[in-house]
Design brief:
The protein has 368 residues and is an alpha/beta fold. The protein has two domains: 18-180 and 226-249, Rossmann fold, CATH 3.40.50.720; 188-223 and 255-325 and 341-362, no CATH class. Helix content is 40%, strand content 12%. It has 14 helices and 13 strands. The strands form four sheets. A seven-stranded parallel sheet has the order 3-2-1-4-5-6-11, with helices on both faces. A two-stranded parallel ribbon has the order 7-10. A two-stranded parallel ribbon has the order 8-13. Strand 1, helix 1 and strand 2 (42-47) form a beta-alpha-beta unit. Helix 1 (27-38) crosses helix 7, helix 2 (66-72) packs parallel to helix 3 (93-114) and helix 3 runs parallel beside helix 4. The longest helix is centred in the N-terminal third of the chain and has 22 residues, at 93-114. The two termini are 24 Å apart.
Length: 368
């Protein structure tokens, strides 16, 4: 992990146990698993795909199959904590609910069948709980805000956990991050890669660093959540009485406008800066796949199929969202989690870390 520039650290509770991280190959799950591992916990991870070289014990299991989940997790009789970061994208709300509820229920039922002494479950939601995906929503959003009338898997998963926690005697915490930043191999749902790959290709073509969204989106307030900070919040939630059966917004604790950061990105990458120009990254960037492939070969970067490297729709959505996206983190601070980050300093550090790992090319260093 990169150094913690500007990170205010909460003293995490001591003690160890056995944790299962569902979705340990994803951005959120991989950081949570690593954080627990670093603290000396016995860590098991589960996802459908195989993971290479993970320092924790990984199990490749299809959690959508209840029989496979029960059989695959039968040996995990000592799990005291579940971190549930598994997720499968689907095109409709109904399919999202059916699929992701099944992932969660099958995991909980499998641990119950194994006789695991489960004490706590941490799972993740996000800004869609407040209507971020619909455009404008009341800001700063608070955990006490009412649900939307439209069904969503955040709500149904929360209801499921509440029901089973009362029945089986474990506590839970739901964490609501926004725009999680970090890196996990094979995970294209990553704002860092959207910006970094876009910048690398632009620089290689001799083009300036230009915000590819609307002028309105350039000026609204936004926030992000560092994946390492979220992992610390996960550990805190699983060991703190004040977090039991609660929902918390978790962000870096500051807000910014893209108009403040985009010139900073240009400076950090050693690029010229130009005024915003609205475009569709989903349409434009695939036409430049050959440029990226040349960069990969020239600088011996980690080889990833360009079609699965970056989820360009993530950038299109965020860079065309024309309403403030701010959630209050007061509840978490009052409960005892006070970690905070200066996003303006942190993001360049994370880009440098991706360069060091040969995910992004060295051409993104200033002066290169």
């Amino acid at each position: 992990m990169p150094a913690n520039i500007g990170l205010t650290l909460t003293d995490l509770p001591t003690g160890t146990g056995t944790v299962l991280v569902a979705g340990d190959g994803g951005l959120i799950g991989s950081y949570a698993a690593q954080a627990y591992h670093d603290l000396g916990w016995e860590v098991h991870g589960v996802s459908r795909r195989e993971l290479e070289h993970s320092p924790w014990t990984h199990h490749s299991i299809d959690l959508l199959d209840p029989e496979a989940a029960t059989a695959g997790l039968a040996e995990l009789k000592n799990v005291t904590h579940l971190v549930f970061g598994a997720y499968i994208e689907k095109p409709t709300d109904a399919e999202l609910i059916e699929t992701n509820d099944a992932l969660l229920r099958n995991t909980l039922d499998a641990l119950h069948a194994a006789g695991a002494p489960l004490k706590h479950v941490t799972f993740y939601q996000g800004g869609k709980a407040y209507g971020h995906h619909l455009g404008f929503f009341n800001t700063p959003a608070k955990e006490s805000d009412p649900r939307l009338i439209a069904p969503h898997f955040y709500y149904t998963q929360e209801d499921l956990v509440r029901e089973l926690s009362e029945e089986r005697g474990f506590s839970f915490t739901a964490l609501r991050p926004e725009g999680v930043t970090g890196y996990a191999t094979g995970n294209p749902m990553n704002l860092l890669l959207v910006i970094g790959v876009y910048a690398a290709i632009s620089k290689e073509l001799g083009l300036p660093m230009r915000f590819p969204g609307t002028r309105a989106a350039y000026e609204v307030l936004y926030q992000t959540t560092d994946a390492e900070l979220l992992a610390r919040a996960t550990i805190w939630a699983g060991a703190t009485e004040a977090a039991a059966d609660q929902v918390f917004n978790i962000t870096n604790g500051d807000q910014f406008r893209w108009s403040q950061l985009w010139p900073r990105f240009a400076q950090h990458f050693g690029m010229d800066y130009a005024a915003p120009q609205q475009m569709s990254l989903s349409e434009a960037m695939p036409t430049r796949a050959a440029v990226w492939e040349e960069l990969v070969e020239k600088y011996d970067l980690v080889a990833t199929d360009f079609n699965t490297l970056v989820a360009w729709p993530v950038g299109d959505f965020l860079f065309h969202h024309e309403a403030d996206n701010i959630t209050s983190t007061i509840k978490a601070r009052q409960a005892g989690f006070a970690d905070a980050l200066d996003t303006e300093s942190r993001l360049p550090e994370l880009f440098d870390d991706l360069i060091a790992k040969k995910i992004l090319p060295p051409t993104l260093r200033a002066g290169a």
